[in-house]
Amino acid sequence: MSEQNWSRETSRRTVLKTTAASIAGLSGVSSLAPLGRGAEGSRPQPVSDPEPAPAPAIHIAPDLREFNWPILLGNERDSMADALTGYVDDATVSREQKRTARESLKDIWAEVEIKSKTKPWHVIQKQREKERREKPNTHDSDRRGGQGHKKRQKSQKGGNAKPQIRRDDTTTVYKLKGDKQKVRTVLEDTERTVRQTGAVSVATTQDAESLANLSSVIESGATSSGENEEGSENISPQWKRGTKDKHEGHNYLARWAGKNMNIDDDLSDALFNNAPKPDGWDYDFPKIPERFEDPPTGNDRAHSYAHAWNPLTKIGHADHFLDERMNNAVDHAEESTERYQEVGYAMHFLQDLGNPLHTNMFLEQKLNEWVHYKYERKVAEYLEDGHILTENVENLEGYNPVPDPLPWEGSKWGEHGHQLATFSANYASDFLTIIMEHEGEDPLANSDELVTDTQSVLEKTTTYSMGLIGEIHPLYA
Question: For an engineered disulfide with 232, which of 12, 15, 218, 373 has Cβ 3.0 to 4.6 Å away?
């Protein structure tokens, strides 16, 4: 259903409320894994056994992640093949370039086979934990500041604060079928052909795995067909900053973290006013790891690095800024505006770690920039009073407590962020796939899965933000 066919004030809410109701009916529950709604004035409690979040629908295996997997996925998913072909048809390139791009897609899907298998989500999680343990740790953040990544024990406060896993949920795993070298050869031939047809200008054409030139054609089609609306060049992969009258992002989430925890209004206002500010700061790092690919949006690599952290590669710096700002906060008086100004800054970086676009799939975002533009724009529109997404932010009665790390694990604040990032990164494949497949449509209005994913990450981001307050406010001492 095209978004032109329903009004913003009524129909959008009706569609999404109906979508959520259908999801709830299918799952046999009354809401999408909420922690509960608190009565006004009630004191939220730490969640000792968090309600398991829905499993992501899609998981991309490591061998497939080495390539531009959204394009390769057209071999196995007709919906992706149809969408990519549609974007090529709308591309602002010559007729010859369109023809070459269409033929290249067909060649890739004919020669690069993808296989899929549905597995229990908890089995996939165990495999991922094994990947993490076996992956060499080269990121300098693990040598600076002691942000340890070893297996955690249960917290002394409220049990294990990590999100639990639904053992009966399943996820579809996509992986390559065949030799990776053959895949590279096919992609190299494809890129060479696309480059020869005309002036497709991209930053790099050396890495065939990225299919940079073919992606450029696809992106031009997505942009010309309205996926990347006017003004979206100012939206980076972060919860969009709101205004005084429209609280759509970091300030909205931060204020409700304070309101949910029943702290004074002036402290909640301090959170609201200061949470968006880190997006306006300048960042400079002596060295950014080479494995941190080009920034997902824009040209400011340092800014993207400052607001990201990938739990698999351990690349990014948001966990350090979270730690730094919370340590600054506890140096101020318990209920002072100065303390909650720093907490607002810290919440910004923590909330970034609740956004899957900050914690996974950085290269894929760079190659398909319009995907997160489109998603961020829609979430920003939907975070308003009375909308279904606000039910996973407002009036929550439980929060995720900050863990008590073991001596060698380092910062409790950084570990709090790591736990949230590990949760949100699971949903990045879903986001990218679903949004790309909904060509010319509002994906949130047309995908039950994306609504479920968005509600999951918004609620978890809010309860983790509440956890910062629970750790330092005298009400919860």
Answer: 373
Read off the pLDDT of residues 309-362 as tens digits, 9 standing for 90 and up.
999 888 999 999 999 999 999 999 999 999 999 999 999 999 999 999 899 988
User: 119 φ, ψ to 5°?
Assistant: -130, 160
Domains annotated for the chain, with CATH where assigned, are: 3-476 (1.10.575.10)
Task: Mark 137-161 as b/e (b = at least 16 C-beta within 10 Å).
Answer: eebebeeeeebbbeebeebebbebb
CB within 8 Å of 170: residues ≥ 6 apart: 55, 118, 119, 120, 121
Helix axes 369-382, 11-27, angle to 10 degrees: 100
Q: What are 161's two structure tokens?
A: 């604060």
pTM, two decimals, is: 0.80
Q: Of 460, 443, 435, 433, which is closest to residue 116 (Cα–Cα)?
A: 433
Q: What is the per-residue DSSP string for 368-417?
A: THHHHHHHHHHHHHH-STTSGGGGGTSSB-EE-PPP---GGG--HHHHHH
| β-strand pairing of 170-177 with 113-120 | antiparallel
pLDDT tens, residue by residue, 248-281 = 578 889 999 999 999 999 999 999 999 999 988 9
> Are 104 and 214 in contact, with CB atoms under 8 Å apart?
yes
How many angstroms separate the Cα of 328 from the Cα of each of 125, 325, 339, 343, 345?
35, 5, 8, 9, 10
Question: CA 473 → CA 170, 240, 329, distances in Å?
Answer: 39, 27, 11
54: DSSP letter: P
Secondary structure element (H or E) that encloses residue 331, with its range: none
Token pair listed for 142: 């693990």
- Measured distance CA(342)–CA(326) in Å, rounded: 7
